[in-house]
Amino acid sequence: MVRSEGFEALTYVRPELTAMRQTAEALLAQHATRRSVRHFSPDPIPLDVLDLCIRAAGLAPSGAHKQPWSFCVVTDPALKRKIRAAAEAEEQAFYTARAPQSWLDDLAVFGTDANKPFLETAPALVVLFAQNRGPDGSKHYYISESVGIAAGFFISALHRCGLVTLTHTPSPMGFLGELLNRPKNERAFLLLPVGFPAEDCQVPILARKSLEAIRVRYDEGPHTATPQE
To answer: For the chain, what is the mean pLDDT?
Structure first.
């Protein structure tokens, strides 16, 4: 292959099949213990570790390599208090007026309501913003997909480092841009409290879908389309 200007050789060593399977099994076992947490310890977290997790998230692929994300880290207690108050106002409207009953029924298993104390208890709040355009007005592509992948990288990195989090999405989230004085080209995408779990932390008993429920294979041979519901 002839190298083109602006490209470099990929650094890659093909692993043995046994090593591949061992890595995949270890990764599955580790991620099987990941849970969304709503009960946090107030103990501070190492911010250098958090920064490394953000750097890992920033390695995610993005449309045209525009990297359309900003990770805002909030540790100031007064600012966390303001974020909680604004989030709870939106959540109160959601639980009492905006949400259809079917949605509330689906949420019942989690025991959630408009009260969000974790937004103050967690030692750090990470607000992930999606950049609709570059600071210079340049166009960005596949913004939600790109930022969503970066969020997945971030959550995985936190878990592998022994930190816990929750993907919180009060709606609408315009108050986050205002409180954090973010530029007009950004919109709040996720609000993630980050920390250690409280000693008495509890999580709902949930079942994950099986491999057969989420994986569809197309091996060699005739294929029959399955009608969509």
So the answer is: 94
